[in-house]
Amino acid sequence: xxxxxxxxxxxxxxxxxxxxxxxxxxxxxxxxxxxxxxxxxxxxxxxxxxxxxxxxxxxxxxxxxxxxxxxxxxxxxxxxxxxxxxxxxxxxxxxxxxxxxxxxxxxxxxxxxxxxxxxxxxxxxxxxxxxxxxxxxxxxxxxxxxxxxxxxxxxxxxxxxxxxxxxxxxxxxxxxxxxxxxxxxxxxxxxxxxxxxxxxxxxxxxxxxxxxxxxxxxxxxxxxxxxxxxxxxxxxxxxxxxxxxxxxxxxxxxxxxxxxxxxxxxxxxxxxxxxxxxxxxxxxxxxxxxxxxxxxxxxxxxxxxxxxxxxxxxxxxxxxxxxxxxxxxxxxxxxxxxxxxxxxxxxxxxxxxxxxxxxxx
Amino acid sequence: xxxxxxxxxxxxxxxxxxxxxxxxxxxxxxxxxxxxxxxxxxxxxxxxxxxxxxxxxxxxxxxxxxxxxxxxxxxxxxxxxxxxxxxxxxxxxxxxxxxxxxxxxxxxxxxxxxxxxxxxxxxxxxxxxxxxxxxxxxxxxxxxxxxxxxxxxxxxxxxxxxxxxxxxxxxxxxxxxxxxxxxxxxxxxxxxxxxxxxxxxxxxxxxxxxxxxxxxxxxxxxxxxxxxxxxxxxxxxxxxxxxxxxxxxxxxxxxxxxxxxxxxxxxxxxxxxxxxxxxxxxxxxxxxxxxxxxxxxxxxxxxxxxxxxxxxxxxxxxxxxxxxxxxxxxxxxxxxxxxxxxxxxxxxxxxxxxxxxxxxxxxxxxxxxxxx
Lengths: 361, 372
Description:
Chain A is built from 15 helices and eleven strands. By secondary structure, chain A is an alpha/beta fold.
């Protein structure tokens, strides 16, 4: 069966849409009988390799993406999957750089390889089905039935992953288990004194090099961390509306949506916004979130990352933020507990009375 | 659309972009509405805009916001804004501006031209909403005046670009251009507006020029606002003209407006965007929002039509233009044309900017000499 295909191996860079959609991609390609080659985890070397390819104004995630493409080429991949996700709903667009990923990669990297570049554009009514069919066509598969089965397999894997992640299992564990087809139960929840929600794009937050392992760092400080994986996209969209905003960016679900969900539920102590330097959509969304945080009196910290981010300064800021939250919480608790304290003057008066009574007796 | 201000009391304002105020003023006034024109973009305006907007937003927004504030101070109560097709941060401008201005305590109506689909209908609706004018003659007069003034300004600008590097007495072309801007502004009848174009052409012919002078041609491409607003691009056209370079601009107001407003069945020739898509095919397969595909397409177009060099200008952190910047080096190599990318923000110093342009022009001239 495989001999029919143009390519039996497809490389997927471990960046951008990998972090949100990889279980779907994996299930889809596996069902079609195509081997998936993943690039290695992001390292400083990957970033440097990417920086050499693109112009300096480009944001960090795109530089990392280019680095991963280089890594895949070094691994000997001939076909690389570079999707262009234009919009995820009517007039809900992605950032230009994500929309134009194949255009950037085509013009920036001068090596001999084929790009599998399907388009997803719901504004122009190109849905997920067309996206999958296009992918298959580019790989030389014309059997529509096989594509349909593959889509189902992809969804199954994705849903399994998503359910696990939503129940509170860390991203990496959920992903590895989902890819093996296993389903793991949620561990016992330990109640932690503080809870913080991190808002940020999946490709920044779950990449351990880009986010400098932010989630683990916070968990070490005894903080319960919520991310976009803990909220259903539909609930996030509802929350955006409930907060009186209109969704404009495709990624807005991950940022404003998640922040709005927890702000409305009123169950978090603080918000950390993680964004790459020069990110266009984030500059607007973080401002929006900050505006509503001010209204609801929730502290927010905006962390900006680029390829030069020093880890020491990063840790200091996180620790300071957590310390501040702890102090704030202690203060609130102190205010709320009412001890039966009597005024000193009253105590003296009572004692005097007692003495008087004693004398009279 | 909001409707707080009664129609009679409406005083309309819109953000500035080059000389867009002249035709738009004619249009809105002939529909019977009052107009306030905010002062031209300047350092003070930019400072005001920067003070009230967030750090990461792009330069055009900061200027637009300043224009709004200045117009509101002057007594405007209805603000207009375009949301042209293409989806970068431009689509968020009105939303943010509304919020910021309300926080600052202003009261106003915002009228948005959402240009995604059915553009002409949207435009007419918006104008009707603002003016409640029923008279079709007024609409005819307004649009005719507006369009003719746009074309007149375009003609004057094209001739200015051609004449400036060739003129014998320095400053003649500039004077003539400014004179015609004033006349265009004062013209108030459709008949006179239709004649403007011819009169401008005749007047520019009178300027003494050196016809045999070899002049390098530079094509300006990039983000539209920056291209069309002389304050934002630090008057790059004038600087280039005075260095003895003929400038051709990627887009003129007229082309831009035609693409934005005209219904598609009225197109007789290939529109600017269609041409760009055709030329960009080799490098880009899909439009990605903003003016990226126009930038790339026009670069290829210019390279094939005897242009000596290309200057690409964009505001800092403009997403579509960053993609274009990534693509341009390859285009430059394959089409064999020199390209200079300039990024502008509120911190740009003019001296460094001029040095880079001068070096680029020297490079073009040397290249020409070598080819000869």
